[in-house]
């Protein structure tokens, strides 16, 4: 028993050491990348073992992190017997186990004693990777060739030498080359940092001890995950989420359906009832769906569960080929990563009765907006995604939803620093505020929505939207209310105004234009009239809810000035209201 405990302790220390190396890789990438995308955290990186299995990762974008191991497995099969020390591989093709064509992955094998012992990997969102639209987001795409340059697994470095022919082939198809090429070099650098640090750890540990620790780590994680799943109630549970495709002149809906099966210490997610792939860019790759499902599962398990190959041993995920969650070639798939929100929502709604204290209400659905053009200050191209406009998170038992957390399943990207945002782009940020009454009401309310106003002075500026939440808000659960809607409005210099659809190209944005973005709030959890009156009072004083909502939605009585809750009168009112609890 003592020996077993000592081995477990050593394995935990080993895991912490490897985890620290991923943090070092991430810091190197942060400090050397160029674009506002990657240096705001739109990336993931980490280590795979010699068989391409998930060893450890830094999850700035969890969705990307859980795409690293499928991508590594694919390229190992593709280059079987042709992997050498000094090689570096690149690929972005969604049919080669990738997420989205703009999410470009680098993989570097790590050798010790002449043997392949591990891989370092880094995937980052490039500001452009070809296609019909600058910035690669093309809401009008009906096939992949209108979206991006497809890069199947290819050697970028071969035995320590850069293959400049491949490098030039790729970057000849990339707009904003100055920005994107710098990001690519930063990704290569982060992989090199990881390789050096992992080799040093391996020399300190010894190759045999390193390999033994890896297997013990997987076994330890698997035992923990199986124990967590075994504690969940057995059964089959069904959930759905609707995608509202708000296109100019052609609005439509698609449905994601999931059956969650819990049997003993295993769990399965079957999306067989999901609608077929669409003729638009609202489709996901299987890798994106798998990553979204794993990320959602982790919301339901203990935060102490480690994220490595042991996690996936007890999980089965099925999305039928040809469905919106596993689209076939030549489907356009740029919107696929945003479907992580709907995938997570369907799973949470399926389990809301079985696991009421673990699920979250639906988060504010993401409406992404990106702009691109030429900066008159330096004559260079620019491109950015408005991370500032993130929506509110969904509430859960005992906790209000996060304000502005990012995508459910794809979050952790930083909300931009205001001054950096203005330095990197020819814009002026006028306003960035939370919005009163935007959160879905509930015993625990959703996260607040936002309002962001931006003035443009760039040249040749264009924009595009991709997302959801403009037609229907995110609903609440177990009696909670819905959040608010998303919107993007353009106010042009001549006085004209235009509301953008959720999937639309805005080709010409003249200097002096102001865009107004409303990011919706997250869904509420539980009946609003059961909310603690102290929290209602705090929300009222902070401007998070209006006096009208405090009275009509939360059942409060206000003081004569209307600026605070009258607690005694409110308790009496709630007590005398049928179907509600006293506060």
Summarize the structure.
This protein is of the alpha+beta class and 583 residues long. It is built from 13 helices and 20 strands.
Keywords for this entry:
globular; seven-stranded antiparallel sheet; 29% helix; five-stranded antiparallel sheet; alpha+beta; 583 residues
SSE order and pairing:
Blueprint: H1 2-32, E1 43-49, E2 54-58, H2 62-65, H3 68-78, E3 88-91, E4 103-112, E5 115-125, E6 154-158, E7 161-162, H4 164-171, H5 177-205, H6 207-230, E8 235-245, E9 252-263, E10 266-270, H7 286-300, H8 309-312, E11 315-318, H9 339-350, E12 367-375, E13 380-385, H10 418-424, E14 427-434, E15 450-456, E16 459-467, E17 487-491, E18 497-499, E19 504-506, E20 514-519, H11 533-542, H12 547-552, H13 567-575
Parallel strand pairs: 10-11
Antiparallel strand pairs: 1-2, 1-5, 3-4, 3-6, 4-5, 6-7, 8-9, 9-10, 12-13, 12-16, 14-15, 15-20, 16-19, 17-18, 17-20
Q: Could you please describe the fold and organization of this structure?
A:
With 583 residues, the protein is α+β, with helices and mostly antiparallel strands. Helices cover 29% and strands 23% of the residues. The protein contains 13 helices and 20 strands. A hairpin with a 2-residue loop joins β9 (252-263) and β10 (266-270). α5 (177-205) packs across α6 (207-230) and α7 packs across α9. The longest helix has 31 residues, at 2-32. The mean pLDDT is 95.
Largest sheet: 7 strands, antiparallel
Helix count, DSSP H or I runs of 4 or more residues: 13
In total, the number of strands is 20
Q: Which sequence of strands runs across the widest sheet?
A: 2-1-5-4-3-6-7
Q: What's the rounded overall pLDDT mean?
A: 95
The first-to-last residue Cα distance is 52 Å
Classify the helix fraction into a percent range: 25-40%
Low-pLDDT parts are: none
What structural class is derived from the secondary structure elements?
Answer: alpha+beta
Q: What would you call the shape? A: globular
| Rg result | 25 Å
The fraction of residues in strands falls at 15-25%
